């Protein structure tokens, strides 16, 4: 019990500090430039870096464990400490080496009116819904990928000596997101506006998620599944940088309509929306699996897992749907929200 309290307390403290760092980090985008194209490029750099490190971490972690050696507990402690120091140094460098070139009009003092104005900001309401939905889309897919491999594909898939588990499976998507995050500014210029670029990216995610549902649940089709994950990630890679660039536009919209700057508040609400979407999507997956008839058991190590005896055809269909049909519905909502987004630039 003491170890659990220690772990939960440190995790909550870490996330609190993460929020303290992430809010000003995100807000920088709104005060570094007024140029829309530059905002898109800066946001693109941000997302390319995020996906690149996600891919590098997924791919290198097993090798880092071998280098460190010892028990799994020792490996996680050492690697976590090293990556934590790297993250802290790079984040500090970001803060020290960037410059706020815009001096927006600020509220004279804190007031709850700032929150009231935010609720009346139509663009912010749409943006909050978009942020929640994007994390629903990603949350469903990432959280259910492990269940899909365990239940539908009967474990890791080995093809010509290549072992494909759910982390490798999703790593293909990470690489694609990284590449097309860099393409996002060009695509936005091509279609004429951020909202339309977001709309077409969400449309791609909708169509490909629907197609995924009709793939047979067989390891023989693993390359077809990977191909669809890669193509879906093209859409994710395009709309991910737009999310934060559009938040900067919402901050400008707020200043124009209400006369005060709420850049920090707006970007912090973006972080909140993302965390909310991630948390709720995970809870919904557990709920839907329970409705389908899943029972959970505890293994010898104390880890919770699905009882193999409870994996029926309805459970298999539910797992497959959670990776395809449910994200498709969320992508449809993203299309509608992007189409009706009030800022047209």
Automatic annotation (TrEMBL):
Pfam families per UniProt: MFS_2
A single GO cellular-component term on record:
plasma membrane
One GO MF term on file is: symporter activity
Q: Which domain of life is it from?
A: Bacteria
Q: Which UniProt keywords apply?
A: Membrane, Transmembrane, Transmembrane helix
Q: Where is the chain membrane-spanning? A: 6-32, 44-64, 76-97, 123-143, 163-184, 196-215, 221-244, 276-297, 317-339
Family in the record: Belongs to the sodium:galactoside symporter (TC 2.A.2) family.
Q: Can you say what this protein is called?
A: MFS transporter
Q: What is the lineage of its organism?
A: Bacteria, Pseudomonadati, Bacteroidota, Bacteroidia, Bacteroidales
């Amino acid at each position: 019990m003491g170890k659990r309290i220690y772990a939960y307390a440190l995790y909550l403290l870490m996330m609190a500090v993460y929020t303290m760092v992430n809010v000003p980090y995100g807000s920088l985008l709104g005060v570094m430039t007024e140029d829309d194209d530059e905002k898109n490029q800066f946001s693109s750099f941000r997302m390319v870096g995020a996906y690149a490190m996600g891919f590098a971490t997924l791919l290198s972690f097993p090798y880092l464990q071998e280098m460190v050696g010892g028990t799994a507990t020792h490996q996680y402690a050492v690697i976590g400490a090293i990556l934590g120091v790297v993250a802290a140094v790079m984040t500090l460098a970001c803060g020290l080496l960037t410059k706020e070139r815009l001096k927006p009009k600020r509220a004279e003092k804190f007031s709850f009116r700032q929150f009231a104005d935010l609720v009346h900001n139509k663009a912010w309401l749409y943006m909050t819904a978009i942020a929640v939905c994007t994390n629903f889309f990603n949350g469903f897919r990432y959280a259910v990928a492990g269940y899909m491999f365990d239940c539908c594909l009967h474990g890791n898939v080995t093809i010509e000596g290549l072992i494909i588990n759910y982390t490798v499976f999703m790593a293909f998507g990470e690489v694609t997101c990284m590449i097309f995050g860099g393409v996002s500014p060009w695509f936005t210029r091509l279609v004429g506006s951020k909202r339309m670029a977001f709309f077409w990216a969400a449309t791609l995610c909708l169509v490909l998620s629907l197609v995924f549902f009709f793939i047979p649940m067989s390891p023989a089709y693993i390359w077809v599944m990977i191909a669809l994950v890669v193509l879906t990630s093209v859409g994710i890679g395009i709309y991910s940088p737009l999310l934060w660039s559009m938040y900067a536009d919402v901050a400008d919209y707020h200043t124009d309509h209400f006369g005060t700057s709420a850049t920090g508040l707006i970007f912090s609400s973006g972080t909140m929306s993302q965390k909310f979407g991630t948390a709720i999507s995970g809870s919904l997956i557990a709920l839907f699996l329970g409705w389908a008839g899943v029972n959970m058991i505890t293994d010898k190590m104390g880890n919770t897992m699905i009882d193999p005896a409870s994996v029926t055809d309805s459970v298999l269909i539910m797992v497959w749907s959670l990776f395809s049909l449910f994200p498709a519905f969320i992508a449809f909502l993203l299309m509608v929200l992007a189409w009706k987004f009030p800022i047209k630039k």
